Amino acid sequence: MSPQEQPVKEQRRTRQRAAVDEVLDETEDFISAQDLHAILRTRGMSVGLATVYRTLQTLADDGRVDVLRTAGGEAAYRRCARDEHHHHMVCRSCGATVEIAGPAVERWTNSVAKEHGYVDVSHTLEIFGTCPRCAAQSGGPAGR
Amino acid sequence: MSPQEQPVKEQRRTRQRAAVDEVLDETEDFISAQDLHAILRTRGMSVGLATVYRTLQTLADDGRVDVLRTAGGEAAYRRCARDEHHHHMVCRSCGATVEIAGPAVERWTNSVAKEHGYVDVSHTLEIFGTCPRCAAQSGGPAGR
DNA sequence: GACCTTTTGACAATGGTTGTCATGCTACAT
DNA sequence: ATGTAGCATGACAACCATTGTCAAAAGGTC
Ligand SMILES: [Zn+2]
Ligand SMILES: [Zn+2]
Ligand SMILES: [Zn+2]
Ligand SMILES: [Zn+2]
Q1: What single-letter DSSP state applies at residue A4?
Q2: CA of A89 to the centre of ligand 4 (A)
Q3: Average pLDDT score over residue span B124-132
Q4: Which of B123, B71, B88 is closest to A60 using CA atoms?
Q5: Which residues in chain A are closer than 8 Å to B3, comparing Cβ atoms?
Q6: What predicted TM-score, i.e. pTM, was given to this entire model?
Q7: B101 — contact with chain A (CB < 8 Å)?
Q8: Distance, CA B54 to ligand 3 centroid (Å)?
Q9: Burial B60-84 (b: 16+ CB within 10 A, else e)
């Protein structure tokens, strides 16, 4: 997997990129470009929306942040603790995210791909649910 | 999983829905609402775009077609052979789709969820790659 | 056919994302 | 420090998939 490791193209240090970076560092949950931009505005930091989009996209391309598509189809970004390939379990209600690694799943996808002759494979795997905190809050003992 | 099975709300039979249904029956690969609409136009069948969207959404809600989000974020639909829960391996180049079922993966997601106290969980899992045919065509022996 | 309800479709509106391009700034050499 | 070359930025337009609107059309029923 990942045959050609991009050397992560050299990038210039700019105020805007630092700002985006900072928000990402402080944010536990996945965040959309729009929301990140809103936060920057709130803080009085002026950064163009297009720049936020570009910056996040670049970070994602370089594998420096993880991306996932929300149910609504929007892209959401997150700086993750571990660097290796992994997946996420996200709370639908509060966004609480747990990073999960499943070697077995990775093996399985590879074997399935090989079995059918598919090459250059990648995959997406996300788990959505309600985290314990949110479940306790709204669900009560006899949930739903 | 799926505690409340919707009895699939009664629907009226209309020319438009039949048309969409027919295309879905003939189409092996995942297809977007836009593309399906285009096909209908090609065939001279006049069906409003909004209607195509509504019809596909309804079918998806009723679980009569599977949905996935393309890399570009568009929704794509497909009538699948098996009725039970399963996933897909899709060719990035030609769209060739293989239905795959992985009991182990299902068990794994459930155990992970339980382990972290997440409830009411669902998941998405898609494999993308290049099918044997497309690989042979463009890739050649010393691919890339 | 009469009648009521659902469905349709043309078009506007939405909303996330990307393209444009003149201007700004970083990095680096002088 | 100054100059320069080229990447980066931002305001705004453009895109494009998807959804909302609502009067007109069609399905189902008696
Ligand atoms: Zn939560
Ligand atoms: Zn994986
Ligand atoms: Zn193919
Ligand atoms: Zn599954």
Answers
A1: S
A2: 14
A3: 95
A4: B71
A5: 144
A6: 0.87
A7: no
A8: 29
A9: eeeebbbbbbbeeeebbbbbbeeee
